[in-house]
Amino acid sequence: MEWLELKIPPVVVGACTGLLVWAGGAVPILSWTVSAMLEGLAALLGVVGILVAVAGVAAFYKARTTVNPHTPGKASLLVTRGIYAYSRNPMYTGLFALLLGWAVLQGGILPLLLALVFIPFMTRFQIVPEERVLRTLFGEDFERYQARVRRWI
After folding, report:
1. N or C: more exposed end of the chain, with fewer CB within 10 A?
2. Which sequence spans correspond to the domains of the chain?
3. In the chain, helix, strand, coil percent, each to 5?
């Protein structure tokens, strides 16, 4: 399934996952009533997700390197500072936190499980191919960074 690598924009993957999460909320399996506390948790996850993702984009713009997920080979610099000192993929981590908040609002275990689908899909079809390119471009610098900083969080 290499033909899927770096093909679907992460935002589209996130939107499709969000639709799955929403649809999963209609299935009353191990569901719960969404209380004010859960709404607060969902809001917190959403805000944190947006802040983390924006911090990732901002770090790329500050470094003047590409943010285009389809062309990691155009990266002019290995960004390892700021939010990238804590996560190698803060844009995707932030998007996942947003999905998790959305899943909490749907009020069931199925939406939470469907939100988790985002991680293996993004890892296989976006992150692993990006890492191959970065290893080629930045060699030992990327390998040291990879050993020091986690892929997600």
Report:
1. N
2. 36-148
3. 70, 0, 25
